[in-house]
Amino acid sequence: TNGTVVLIPDTPNRSSHELYKTATLDQYGHYKITGVTPGSYSLFAFQNVERGIWEDPDYLKNIEKQGVAVSLAEGDQQSNDLKVIIGDEE
């Protein structure tokens, strides 16, 4: 709980900041992201990290392998289990 889930577009579209989507984990660790443009993404869960750090290419290089790859088409619904990446921001 108290984490943020972030859907990050794959490398060719990372400069399109409107494609990044976030959601807050609820008390049960659930989340819902809506309004996603079809395409390929990586999905991450963060706790105690600086908001927006996921848009920093250098930061993403270090955590890339911890994300879950997702490919979304129009009207898709998916459920994914994520490992939380814990930062040190207080």
Describe this protein's structure:
- By secondary structure, the chain is mainly β.
- The protein is 8% helix and 30% strand.
- It contains 1 helix and 5 strands, in the order E-E-E-H-E-E.
- Strands 1, 2, 3, 4 and 5 form a 5-stranded mixed β-sheet that branches.
- The radius of gyration is 12 Å and the shape is globular.
Q: In DSSP terms, counting alpha (H) and pi (I) runs of 4 or more, how many helices?
A: 1
Derived from helix and strand composition plus strand pairing, the structural class reads: mainly beta
Q: Got a strand count?
A: 5
The major sheet is characterized as: 5 strands, mixed
Give the fraction of residues assigned to helices. Answer: under 10%
Strand content: 25-35%
Our measurement of the CA-to-CA distance between the termini, rounded to an integer number of angstroms, reads: 15 Å
The ordered H/E elements are EEEHEE
The radius of gyration is 12 Å
Mean pLDDT: 90
